[in-house]
Amino acid sequence: MGYAGTRPWCDVPDSRYRRNRNTGSIVGKRPEMRLWIGKNTWVSRRALRQAASLELDQIRSVAVIKHGALGDMVLTRPMLRTLRDALPQARLTLSVVSHYQAGIPEELVDHVHVAQGNDRKASPGEIFRSFRSLGTHDILFDITASSRSFWITRLNRARMKIGYRHRGLERLLYDVAIPRAEYRFEAETFLEQAHILGFNYDWPLRYGQTVAPLSRQKPYIVYFPTASADYKCWPGERYAQLIDSMSRRWPAYEHILLAGLAPWEQERCRTIAAQLSPRDNVIHQQGDNDTPRLLAGASLVIANDTGIRNLSIALERPTVGVFFYAQYRGLPNCGAQPFGYFPRNQEHAIAFRPDGGVPEVAEVESYAERILNYLQQRPLSAPHHPT
Known about the structure:
Elements (H helix, E strand, L loop, with lengths): L16 E3 L6 E4 L12 E2 L1 H9 L7 E5 L4 H5 L2 H10 L4 E7 L13 E5 L8 H9 L6 E4 L4 H9 L4 E5 L5 H4 L2 E3 L7 H10 L24 E5 L11 H14 L4 E6 L3 H12 L7 E5 L4 H6 L3 E4 L3 H8 L4 E4 L3 E3 L2 E4 L13 E4 L9 H17 L10
Parallel strand pairs: 4-5, 4-7, 5-6, 7-8, 8-9, 10-11, 10-13, 11-12, 13-14, 14-17
Antiparallel strand pairs: 1-2, 3-9, 15-16
Helix pairs in contact: 3-7, 8-9, 8-12
């Protein structure tokens, strides 16, 4: 901490110094805003001027743009908590899009801005008015990087705009832009934008997803065999084989086949259930409003590339994610790369093959057993309410 001269901070035009309220002495500088810049970070001259004139305790308003489905939304929680801790005096706004509103962490922000999306037809004027309604902020973070978020950023008069580099567009949109780390866990990728201002985050990540777990007599494993699209789904017969094998080898657990809400998801689960051998510890259950509570109490969740798995991660439950490449509308090699959806700790695993092929049942089962054995040796904390 630097030290002042002979005058109190209130007498200095740039207000960089402060007086100790108890002793009346000058104790040092007010907290300045620094830009922590990497070698591949793009920084505008305007950003340097703003950083020189803006102090951390003068930041009164922060906006975060995140347009995405449930799985993307829950992964914003560590960033929102980090910003709240670093800037407790600031009003925090989260910008979402109207056709994706599941899982919005309303308790972590002061205001939710809803941009017009694809859920209904709207005129260009109405769309742009919804974009401008975000209002002006001291700091704006765009962690979406979509055409819609680009427009919102461009139309906003934030004092400093932070985003990802994107084909040279960062020069038109942002004051600071960093490369996007595509092969790092996505929640940490969002948090890298906070690093620009020197904000660090806790590890393990803090999600603060407060859901009371369902009370069941036995520990249980949840299998969720569907996703946002059929081509992302591990074959149903392999889910049936996995549940049959796991229910035999882990008889002390209940094995719950959880159906999604869409009719095709329910039909898929019925088909899988029809292939299962009848056992007392195998349950076919329809998803409902209590699904988050069911996930919150699970010993393990096995799922495809889906928001249900990300929600389980945010609920601090162990997971196995199944990833592979597939054909979609005649296009080969469709599917998400798995590394961005992999928290690097022993309570999570991703089952995938380097050649993009569909994982075998034995491969998925080996990951599930590794996690269960690890938890038996070092028990996972009981389902709880994270703070």
